[in-house]
Amino acid sequence: MTSKQNRSKLFVPEPPYRPGDTPDFSHIKIPAEHSPSRPDPMIDAYGTQEQATGLIRVLKLDGTPCGDWDPKLDADTLREGLRHMMLTRCVDERMFSMQRQGKMSFYMKSTGEEAIAVASAMALRPTDMVFPTYRQQGILMARGWPLKELMCQCLSNAGDKLEGRSIPVLYSVRELGFFSISGNLGTQMIQAAGWGMACAYKGTDDIAVAFTGEGATAEGDFYYALNFASTYRAPVILNVVNNQWAISSFQGIAAGQSKSFAARGLAFGLASLRVDGNDFLAVYAAIKWATERARNGGGATVIEHFTYRKEGHSTSDDPTKYRPKSEPDVWPFGDPIDRLASHLVTLGEWDKERHDALHTELTAQVRESYKEAEALGTLASPSKIDPASMFEEVFEDLPAHLRRQRQEMGI
Amino acid sequence: MTSKQNRSKLFVPEPPYRPGDTPDFSHIKIPAEHSPSRPDPMIDAYGTQEQATGLIRVLKLDGTPCGDWDPKLDADTLREGLRHMMLTRCVDERMFSMQRQGKMSFYMKSTGEEAIAVASAMALRPTDMVFPTYRQQGILMARGWPLKELMCQCLSNAGDKLEGRSIPVLYSVRELGFFSISGNLGTQMIQAAGWGMACAYKGTDDIAVAFTGEGATAEGDFYYALNFASTYRAPVILNVVNNQWAISSFQGIAAGQSKSFAARGLAFGLASLRVDGNDFLAVYAAIKWATERARNGGGATVIEHFTYRKEGHSTSDDPTKYRPKSEPDVWPFGDPIDRLASHLVTLGEWDKERHDALHTELTAQVRESYKEAEALGTLASPSKIDPASMFEEVFEDLPAHLRRQRQEMGI
Amino acid sequence: MARMNMIEAIRSALDVKLSQDPDVLIFGEDVGYFGGVFRCTAGLQEKHGLTRVFDTPISEGGIIGAAVGMAAYGLRPVVEIQFSDYIYPGYDQICSEAARLRYRSAGQFTAPLTIRTPVGGGIHGGQTHSQSPEALFTHIAGLKTIIPSNPYDAKGLLIKAIEDNDPVLFLEPKRLYNGLFDGDHNKPAVSWAGHELGEVPEGHYTVNFEKARLLEQGTDLTIIAYGTMVWVAQAAAKAAGINADILDLRSLIPLDLESITKSVNKTGRCLVLHEATRTSGFGAELIAEIQQHCFYALEAPIVRVTGWDTPYPHALEWEYFPGIERVQTAIQTIMEA
Amino acid sequence: MARMNMIEAIRSALDVKLSQDPDVLIFGEDVGYFGGVFRCTAGLQEKHGLTRVFDTPISEGGIIGAAVGMAAYGLRPVVEIQFSDYIYPGYDQICSEAARLRYRSAGQFTAPLTIRTPVGGGIHGGQTHSQSPEALFTHIAGLKTIIPSNPYDAKGLLIKAIEDNDPVLFLEPKRLYNGLFDGDHNKPAVSWAGHELGEVPEGHYTVNFEKARLLEQGTDLTIIAYGTMVWVAQAAAKAAGINADILDLRSLIPLDLESITKSVNKTGRCLVLHEATRTSGFGAELIAEIQQHCFYALEAPIVRVTGWDTPYPHALEWEYFPGIERVQTAIQTIMEA
Ligand SMILES: Cc1ncc(C[n+]2csc(CCOP(=O)(O)OP(=O)(O)O)c2C)c(N)n1
Ligand SMILES: Cc1ncc(C[n+]2csc(CCOP(=O)(O)OP(=O)(O)O)c2C)c(N)n1
Ligand SMILES: [Mg+2]
Ligand SMILES: [Mg+2]
To answer: What are phi and psi of C249, to 5 degrees?
Structure first.
């Protein structure tokens, strides 16, 4: 802090490594045994300072648990989580390659971030409304959305319940408490706060659960959410998925000189937790903690999930253009699927055979579902969506000017 | 924090007192002798936690100074500050009553908040651009803007350099480093960050200094400013004037459960100070500290000025509609003019006679200036502003469509 | 039947809906205890409670964003934006979210919220307290835009807006709040008490969006206006001694094109009025449709009288405002064409 | 003379200005090291340095707000909004601040910034990667709105925009970036390399805002278009075998009304095209002016062919897009009227 760079030039933060560099993350301290302790969920928000700036973990990299955040889930639940995560990754892979084959216009993977979506969903009640981004498809696996429906949305075909109106991955599944994903980043954070306010107003103990990438925390809507959640003590969980990248921009562009996205919650007097997002148990425990707080009238919690986006931003992106090709491999927090699997192995509840068998089963399931979905058409095949549907649901009823336009179109 | 209000109803914060109540602020702890200490201006931002949540003070209520923030100004400088503050109040009073007489459409006083504007201006260089709100007219006094010009702007008369385009008090004085005030709250915070970035880019050591009310911190622009200032280490001071009220809304509506507006800076890794805004010396010292930091490459500082809006929001407002009439009088932090005056008295550099004489002098000066200004017209008198000027400066050059419209108007 | 000015009519609409429907909530800057800077919500918090009528942070994006979430949940939020000049921080939430939610979710989620906000000049509010931004919203598919010109319509339309299952932008011409204003600023405002449209039922009733109000009937000319300009049209037509159909649109989206074309096909001449800046104002849309549907009936170019394409100036407010004189001149131009 | 596609032409304009003027800065989401999602700034950071071409937080309001401050200081920021569909969080800073600063400060402060942003559909981008929001900006006094249709104009207009002392919104039809697209999506895009407007000087030149380009000359009909629709117009006129004046506006504000009225007064028939939703689109403004200035020359109603008043759907993209067939039908309607 003794440099005088502003006298000579503007400071522009840069990531430590660019293509051609050999990435080395040994400076990132992997916290040892004891992560910040688990306070009572009704603690005064300002008491979560340590939780907001440290890193809450349960699973060590070798798969053994430690610390008081361990939710002590039974083996069946753990295996269920593993299955949802593996299914998510399987679906992602299949859809990615189908996009490459021209079956759909676009796709986005969540590789490396599966624990965040899946553990969150499992820690919530089905009646809690999630306001996801495009990288929480794991929630849909955990809540049991038929794969075929997901795939039909991506294929914009006759089976797409959204009538081909949105690009792939912008799902909407009200019956599973999955809010319609907006293409506009950030907007849903404050909507979730509003939903939470509505839950409170109606006297239910349902809550709202929103997700944003770390990049999109820079939008005003994120702060509106913090502010409204704080002012009205809305029962909402505001999740920031810090996967280090926002397309080609590293997290330092959004973070600036700050060291924790979670700590932005503290500034509004909100409980704040910073969690190892590759640790299924830590994510589960953190969300559970926040739900307890919210349902008991303690208001909102901000949770930063510290993770890494292992793949490109989307099928339109080539990450080797802006970061070293090897960076995902040397990222020091491991893989969420591997980590949960080795935990189960440590418990004596899992082994390589079962893992491979599950993988084979899920791959087959995905292949089957995809076949069924593709039978209903792809973007490349002539659309079976009725053009007249284009004019519907702009309003509840078709107004005169849209009727005239539909007629002009000859239908 | 054990209440369960969200199960039954939405929480809506309310101020402690409403009309009819007897306000009692004895729960507000007036910090004793030692305010948070003055760290080196190049301290790591996270080292300002205590400064961001405590209350930096120099002047005790009895006028004696204490603590290491004391800027040790000489008596002439102190008297100059007093003069500017008293002039500000004098102008405010005059303009308020002239508005009541129908000479202008609107006016806004800064009563009780004069120290913030005046001490800031005196701690800055004339080349530092301020981005004020409508309650920092004290800066114009301190920077020596002729009163007549200020008054002509309020009167929207022939002497108004802004050609009657804006409502009263939205001044713009580029030659005095006073940015054009926007009627839209908040917008200028991020503009100031941009101005600061420009200063750094050009390699000057000028800085930008922005002001917002505590109410308007809820706008996205405030957060854009925090974020951009943090990311690019912009030399900018972001001042939040917490005068407890935003029109009829008490500060708790903007603050929610948070206890410090300054601390929002910390969330972005920015140095943050919380200052007794009725304490001329504390404000001066805090701004000085922040300028040192900014000019030396340390980037932005967020300063909350804790004060109280003694009068109505504007001439359109009657504060007794929403707060006890006596509240301004029992507000426990005193009056900034009185406090600086008694400090000077303590120093043996001031007395009642001189005070009264100064008041008489300033009153006369204001009366004189107003007379001169009024001679150029008031809003009530037929406007001497050329209607053709309405079409000018929309663009640099008059485009064809505006020329046609001007012709249509018959001029 | 009670006598109400426009503020009272709006307040009455809110009161009726708060009383009838527990899912109606009202919030916005200063609308709670204080009752709003224009007093439209005065007394409602006291009557209906703190959690039903409350203040918000100064965050138009937050207000509208929270309302979208609540509306999607199933509530019926009615929010106030203190001046329409300050609606822009909430523009994204209106255009990208409220207006799109039903479509993109194929009806799973909807956003039945009402956004009330004062528009127009005439109170010496200058550039940032005088704007008429309706055309920035009529371009947005999925949004309804309403603007009443009198107490009776204001109440009926507002109740309708709150009950509507689509997001509605409800624009309140602030110069009409306290009395009828016909553009003559030298004359004191005319109290609504003496006007038939100031007679407002106390209870529940609605005014439909689909039908414009035919304020005056004539054969020489069609004048299309909304909000404050309706009364300027009436005064100017009278001053010009012209026999005009004066249509008060009440709703811009949906638009009563049928009444418009019927009238223009009858009169063959048309004048379009609004206070907003001219270029890309809603008048352009009206003209585009009218010239298409009434081309062969038109005997003269359609003329628009509007605010100039400049910010709304403070001192020169009445030079900016499209007042009686300018409207009268335009009437003459059309009649002589 | 070099051959450039539109991306290269835009990049070349930025490169020329970065080289000439140390006060020019470029920033936006992903525009730095990576060079922008459409590659318009590729290589510029490497060539001109980190502090002249850099990434920003995902905050369109912040980007534009910071640019306003810098521009007021005296710099010439050129910012990119990744898709125009995401410009709304910055709408307030554009409309209330950039467009107003000169006026409200009586020229003391100005905001000479350029906002570049891709518009239009045709890349299966769905509702939030396909919008054409120009009309939301042409209504705002104090803002210029430019939209090129080809590489030559893109470079010359962009240099002009950067040098202009007013804020300029520079809309880039993304479907034209890589090649000329005439609306026939079954055919591969036509490379700009073979087109005369793909011949672009390497160095500095400008194209003025004040003059529309007369793309084709004819006597039967005037077609007014801008951006992608210019090429659809050309293809449709050819398919219809019609002899049309095709005007490529290039600039919406300021508008070359003179060329427009001259042409319509000659042909007596007029077709207006845009991809944006119809209601309150810029076509309405064009029609309002044309019917006023060419009333007695018009032999048929002016027709507009536009995007429908719905969000831009993903699967039904080509049913939404106002393609050759719809334009051809409209030409027939006009010619038969
Ligand atoms: C308002 C808005 N601005 C820009 C974009 C374009 N965009 C889409 S994803 C993205 C990056 C988001 O990064 P982050 O929030 O970190 O989420 P991640 O992709 O890493 O999950 C950008 C800039 C958008 N969709 N919406
Ligand atoms: C964007 C915007 N929203 C609302 C307003 C209306 N308004 C003007 S001043 C004010 C209160 C501001 O309170 P605060 O920020 O605390 O400043 P103070 O008046 O106390 O100095 C409001 C709501 C505005 N001018 N701009
Ligand atoms: Mg990210
Ligand atoms: Mg205040």
So the answer is: -65, -35
Are D104 and B198 within 8 A, CB to CB?
no
**CB within 8 Å of C245: residues ≥ 6 apart:** C214, C216, C217, C218, C219, C221, C222, C223, C263, C266, C267
pLDDT of residue B7: 58
**Percent over 70 (pLDDT), chain D:** 100
Q: Where are the domains of chain B?
A: 42-380, 387-411
Alpha carbon nearest to ligand 2 atom 13, residue: B246
> Measured between alpha carbons, how far is D194 from D184 in angstroms, rounded to an integer?
18
The residue assigned the tokens 């928000």 is: A45
User: C100 contacts in D (CB within 8 Å)?
Assistant: 127, 311
Q: Which of C92, B7, C29, B256 is nearest to A229 (CA)?
A: B256
Tokens 């219809």 belong to D240
B309 is catalytic: yes
- The secondary structure element, H or E, covering residue C216 is strand C213-216
The pick from A240, A242, A247 for probing ligand 1's pocket by mutation, whose C-beta has the most ligand atoms within 8 angstroms, reads A247
Q: Report how far ligand 1's centroid is from the alpha carbon of C66 (Å).
A: 21
Residue of C nearest to B400 (CA): C309
Per-residue pLDDT at D85 exceeds 80: yes
Contacts of B45 (CB under 8 A, 6+ apart): A257, B265, B266, B269, B270, B271, B272, B299
Which ipTM did the prediction report?
Answer: 0.98
Find tokens 């020169």 and name the residue.
C316
Task: Give the DSSP per-residue string, C26-83.
Answer: EEETT-SSS--TT-TTTTHHHHH-TTTEEE--S-HHHHHHHHHHHHHHT-EEEEE-SS
End-to-end CA distance of chain B: 68
> What is the identity of the amino acid at C144?
K
b/e string for A91-101 if b means 16 or more Cβ within 10 A? bbebbbebbee
Q: What is the pLDDT of residues C195-226, one digit of tens each?
A: 999 999 999 999 999 999 999 999 999 999 99
Q: pTM of the prediction?
A: 0.98
Q: Chain A: nearest CA to B304, how far in angstroms?
A: 13
Q: Are D199 and D309 in contact (CB under 8 A)?
A: no
Predicted confidence band of residue B33 (pLDDT cuts 50, 70, 90)? low
Where are the strands (E) in C87-165, listed by range?
Answer: 114-119, 144-146
Residue partners of A110: CB distance under 8 A and separation at least 6 = A88, A92, A117, A135, A136, A137, A138
Neighbours of C268 (CB within 10 A): 17
Structural domains in chain D, sorted by start: 2-200 (3.40.50.970), 213-336 (3.40.50.920)
pLDDT tens-place string over residues A55-89: 999 999 999 999 999 999 999 999 999 999 999 99
- Between CA B159 and CA B104 the distance in angstroms is 14
More confident position, A205 or B31: A205
pLDDT attached to residue C49: 97
Residues contacting B363, CB < 8 A, separation 6+ = B90
Which one of B182, B185, B190 would you pick to mutate in the ligand 2 pocket, going by the greatest count of ligand atoms within 8 A of its CB?
Answer: B185
d(CA B194, CA B175): 19
Per the CB < 8 Å rule, is D102 touching B174?
A: no
Helix (H) / strand (E) element for A237: namely strand A236-242
Q: Which residue of C has its CA nearest to B158?
A: C315
- When the candidates are 1.10.10.60, 3.40.50.970, 3.30.420.40, 3.20.20.30, the CATH number that belongs to A42-380 is 3.40.50.970
